[in-house]
Design brief:
The complex is a heterodimer.
Chain A: H1 12-22, H2 24-39, H3 45-56, H4 62-76, H5 82-98, E1 112-117, H6 124-137, E2 142-147, H7 154-165, E3 168-170, H8 178-192, E4 196-201, H9 209-225, E5 232-238, H10 244-256, E6 260-264, H11 273-280, E7 286-290, E8 298-300, H12 303-311
Parallel strand pairs in A: 1-4, 1-5, 2-3, 2-4, 5-6, 6-7
Antiparallel strand pairs in A: 7-8
Chain B: H1 5-13, H2 24-40, H3 45-59, H4 70-86, E1 101-107, H5 113-128, E2 132-136, H6 144-155, E3 158-160, H7 167-180, E4 185-189, H8 198-211, E5 215-221, H9 228-238, E6 243-247, H10 256-265, E7 269-273, E8 281-283, H11 286-293, H12 299-309, H13 312-323, H14 330-342, H15 345-350, H16 356-359, H17 368-379, H18 383-387, H19 394-404, H20 408-427, H21 433-443
Parallel strand pairs in B: 1-4, 1-5, 2-3, 2-4, 5-6, 6-7
Antiparallel strand pairs in B: 7-8
Helix pairs in contact in B: 1-2, 1-4, 2-3, 3-4, 4-11, 5-6, 7-8, 9-10, 12-21, 14-17, 17-19, 19-20
The chains are: A alpha/beta, B alpha/beta.
Chain lengths: 316, 450
């Protein structure tokens, strides 16, 4: 554990390297498979079927996979070589993902209020910790609100991240009213003239109506105290989750109006196709992707870098 | 969001209606739909493929019986094969070994191991009267050990904070502690780990070697996508898994991971995590998981219809009564029966439950006359008897039977059913009518997981 300046990432090469390394498994699965298949030559039915299998087993989902294949078939029909098909594929994936690329700009308000929501176990608190490291490294004053008052020791976990990043943590302890924690934290952030306030909330299954109501209440309390806030409602999703991510987006969207997403654990999984599924469903921007344990491995999502890293030749 | 398999198959088979036998041709079309349905439910592709082979063989040449159409026949076969592949309901943990029996929990980050450790501890203490010690060797996630301490406290089991920062030594110390304090069971919570992280997988192997646990349980999130098969394989290779716990089944995931994990590990799914509370851990029922995976059984519609048609005032009154801790009485049961009638009777209710329409003649004959005779029995009671059912003994029973034109056995049956209902209502005191309707669905064996 050290101070926030462990998070200096000015070297763009190293940034790309981190992304490449983090996506090594995704590349080994989806990327290499796509390369290998397309490398085989002409775009025939067998290849399309194999490509379909590959996309499906990367969590791309039936609908998005089908539409990608249709587009590839249409555009790739006249392709002269395998290299050309690969290029068409890369461009096609890029354009789909680019629709989800829109970095989070926290300088538009102060305090810029981020409400973080999601189902259990996706890594909300860890993501908040890493975001705090990032914003601190950018020289911003950060306040964290421990409004996950349900999970045992959730505020302790956030406190550790506060110590590590130099962000202040506002908590009231287990069992406290979550909306009241958010309220306190917002007042405190304003009093301190903080730049960013990040509100942690308890993980909840989006099928529990009353828990979703509680979330809506937190949002209302923030809105009332600070018109225009929350400036971002960030839905954290686990890249290892399957098609249910779409349902999570829909339900959390209905309850609190999701404006951006963070996708965690992309390093662990051989997948990443869920990003394509999200893109196909017109999801809000993917602000960050998590490709490793290190705070620097939570990166702004860039479609070009992602596709390039995905399809890059395996190292060595 | 997802089409139901049955709808898809019905469309596929529309043209084929009336044919008496499943042929290679129509099975091929059906299997394509089954494959899509499985993939949409997050069953891993290789598992889905193997499964479809199995179904194809089972389906070939099968006669389409009675009033089933071919689509329904295929769904029935798919369902049957799924259930058999998922294995038996099996919640038994091997607890007969010399105490302390060690239970090791392993899994990916965020699967819900710590929460599950608490629930399992509660289950063993409450249901099996075991002395349980919980300890964690998760030195990585901040406050993970604090979390287990709180959870153990909620579960009413003992907790041990092992000194140091070497997981294997910490585990050894926990085992010593369990021996010294004569615990029956030691539940060891471990850090979440990526199955591709070699160092971390080496660590869990070392923990297993040092502790020689009786039960090694793989804790897996029911939301898991295609990668479930790789994760399960890696944990299966590294550890002698004895069972699986599927968590977060209270969400709306179709839970294809259950099939993938079961197929890869070959070990039984022992429990389902079904909610936020410490007691929300239920034995695994292959039927339910299979129905849910296929998106069968329109239980949601049932709940909605129940909510729409139920007399809200009466429902509120009953709810209020239950909340106050008062017991339900026979007058309440009478109201319930009358409401059920207004919803199309028991037969109408059951038609929403999965599988019922396909059973055809084999379906249990639900007779609305039964409801009527229950009403008659209650109507033949005095208000005093309705409020105090336990007072109804021999001579009162004979009078009531005579008055309602039934037999004493019928009165007995009603009273017994009533007692069971009372127990059920007690358990769901907080729930309200939606939950009652849900539990009706569950008794049909097709509700959301648990």
């Amino acid at each position: 554990m050290s101070s926030a300046n462990e998070l200096s990432d000015s070297d763009e090469l190293s940034a790309f390297h981190r992304l490449r390394r983090g996506l090594a498994r995704t590349r080994a699965g989806l990327g290499r498979g796509l390369r290998a298949l397309v490398g085989e030559g002409a775009l025939d039915e067998q290849m399309l079927e194999d490509l379909g299998d590959l996309l499906l087993s990367a969590d791309t989902g039936v609908e998005a996979s089908r539409s990608i294949l249709e587009e590839l078939e249409r555009r790739g029909r006249g392709a002269a070589s395998a290299g050309e098909v690969l290029q068409i594929l890369e461009e096609l994936l890029y354009r789909r993902l680019a629709a989800c690329e829109q970095p989070l700009d926290v300088s538009t308000a102060a305090p810029f209020v981020i409400l973080v929501v999601g189902v259990n176990g996706v890594g909300k608190t860890t993501t908040i910790g890493k975001l705090a490291m990032r914003f601190r490294a950018e020289g911003r004053e950060v306040v964290l609100a421990a409004a996950d008052t349900f999970r045992a020791a959730a505020s302790e976990q956030l406190l550790r991240w506060g110590e590590r990043s130099g962000a202040s943590v506002i908590s009231q302890g287990e069992g406290a009213d979550a909306a009241s924690v958010a309220h306190d934290a917002l007042q405190s952030a304003r009093a301190r003239g903080a730049d960013v306030l990040i509100v942690d909330t308890a993980g909840r299954q989006h099928t529990h109506h009353n828990l979703m109501e509680e979330l809506a209440k937190i949002r209302r309390v923030i809105e009332r105290l600070e018109p225009g806030a929350p400036h971002e409602v960030l839905l954290v999703v686990d890249a290892g989750n399957g098609q249910n991510v779409l349902s999570q987006l829909q339900r959390f969207g209905e309850a609190v109006g999701v404006t951006g997403m963070a996708m965690t654990k992309l390093d662990g999984t051989a997948k990443g196709g869920i990003l394509l599924a999200l893109a196909a469903h017109g999801a809000p921007p993917v602000r960050f992707i998590g490709v490793g344990e290190d705070p620097r491995d939570l990166r702004p999502f860039e479609a070009r870098g992602f596709v390039t890293a995905l399809l890059a030749e395996p190292e060595g | 969001m997802f089409d139901q398999l049955r709808d898809r198959l019905d469309t596929t088979f529309n043209a084929l209606r009336g044919r008496g036998r499943l042929t290679e041709d129509n099975i091929r079309d059906a299997m394509r739909e089954v494959r899509m349905a499985l993939l949409e439910a997050d069953v891993a592709l290789p598992v889905a493929k193997a499964f479809i082979e199995r179904v194809r063989e089972a389906a070939l040449g099968q006669e389409v019986l009675g009033n089933l159409n071919p689509g329904q026949a295929v769904v029935a076969i798919v369902h049957r094969e799924l259930v058999s592949l998922m294995g038996e309901a099996n919640e038994t943990l091997a607890l007969t070994a010399r105490p302390p029996v060690v239970i090791l929990l392993a899994g990916l980050q965020g699967a819900g191991k710590t929460t599950t450790a608490g629930k399992l501890g509660w289950f063993l203490r409450d249901r099996q009267r075991k002395q349980v010690l919980a300890a964690s060797v998760d030195i990585y996630r901040p406050a993970a050990i604090d979390q287990l301490e709180r959870v153990a406290d909620t579960a009413g089991i003992d907790f041990f904070r092992a000194p140091g920062d070497d997981p294997v030594r910490m585990a050894g110390a926990a085992l010593e502690e369990a021996k010294r304090r004569m615990h029956d069971v030691l539940i060891l919570d471990t850090a979440g780990r990526l199955h591709v992280d070699e160092d971390m997988m080496a660590e869990i192997r070392a923990l297993n070697a040092a502790l020689q646990p009786t039960e090694v349980l793989f804790v897996v999130d029911s939301l898991t996508g295609q990668d479930a098969v790789n994760a399960a394989q890696a944990f299966h290779d590294a550890l002698p898994l004895s069972g699986v716990i599927l968590t977060k089944t209270d969400g709306d995931a179709r839970g294809g991971a259950a099939l993938s994990v079961r197929q890869v590990t070959g070990t039984p799914i022992k429990f389902l995590g079904t909610g936020e509370g410490i007691e929300a851990l239920e034995p695994f029922h292959p039927e339910r998981v299979a129905s849910r995976l296929l998106g069968m059984g329109d239980v949601l519609t049932l709940v909605e219809e129940a909510e729409r048609k139920l007399d809200r005032g009466k429902a509120k009154e009953l709810e209020k009564k239950l909340r106050k801790g008062k017991q339900m009485d026979l007058t309440d049961l009478r109201d319930q029966l009358l409401q059920m009638n207004s919803m199309g009777g028991m037969a109408g209710l059951l038609s929403h439950l999965p599988g019922m329409d396909r059973l055809g003649a084999a379906a249990p004959s639900v007779d609305d006359r039964q409801t009527r005779s229950m009403l008659a029995i209650i109507d033949s009671m005095t208000p005093y008897e309705r409020n105090n059912p336990e007072e109804i003994r021999g001579s009162r029973k004979r009078r009531i039977a005579a008055g309602s034109g039934t037999q004493v056995q019928d009165v007995n049956r009603l009273l017994k059913q009533f007692q069971q209902m009372r127990k059920m209502m007690k358990r769901m005191r907080k729930g309200g009518m939606a939950k009652l309707a849900q539990s009706l669905g569950r008794r049909g064996g097709g509700g959301p997981f648990g």
